[in-house]
């Protein structure tokens, strides 16, 4: 059942990064409900969502990138089994580590429509951009929005018979 759930989710989002093995401190948690980040509020409401720090060793790089992370929100409202599922080519592992470190600190409370505290599989895209020159806030936001599109899930591939 767990394998079928994971394969269904990966087919829905288009996986490009190799799956990561959970650490011994993070027991394998499974969920049967796949929820897009846009519809997550129907199940869980964020309490704490610290944004990842721009990796210090990469601050001199005038490059924008993104990291898409899939994870399960357990009945305890904590993030379980976070996995990097998509990054642009040539993205430094430092950005992936920063995003994983941040997502592990996220906490949620059940939405009013989720009194049973159903576990869900979802994903979130983190954008990283550290301009070396002074961009206007509007221009910076435009750049960040464009970069985030690189990490959006691929549309499901359908075949016609």
From TrEMBL:
Domain TonB C-terminal: residue ranges: 50-128
SUPFAM superfamilies: TolA/TonB C-terminal domain
UniProt GO BP: transmembrane transport
Name of the protein in question: Energy transducer TonB
Organism lineage string: Bacteria, Pseudomonadati, Pseudomonadota, Gammaproteobacteria, Cellvibrionales
């Amino acid at each position: 059942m767990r394998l079928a759930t994971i394969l269904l989710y990966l087919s829905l989002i288009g996986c490009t990064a190799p799956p990561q093995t959970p650490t011994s401190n993070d027991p394998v948690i499974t969920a049967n409900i796949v929820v897009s980040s846009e519809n997550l509020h129907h199940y869980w409401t964020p309490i704490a969502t610290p944004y990842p720090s721009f990796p210090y060793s990469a601050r001199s790089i005038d490059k924008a990138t993104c990291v898409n992370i899939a994870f399960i929100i357990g009945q305890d409202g904590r993030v379980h089994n976070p996995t990097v599922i998509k990054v642009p080519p040539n993205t430094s592992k430092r950005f992936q580590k920063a995003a994983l470190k941040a997502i592990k600190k996220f906490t949620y409370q059940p939405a009013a429509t989720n009194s049973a505290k159903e576990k869900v599989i979802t994903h979130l895209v983190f954008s990283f951009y550290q301009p070396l020159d002074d961009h206007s806030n509007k221009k910076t936001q435009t750049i960040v929005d464009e970069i985030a599109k690189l990490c959006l899930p691929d549309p499901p591939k359908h075949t016609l018979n």
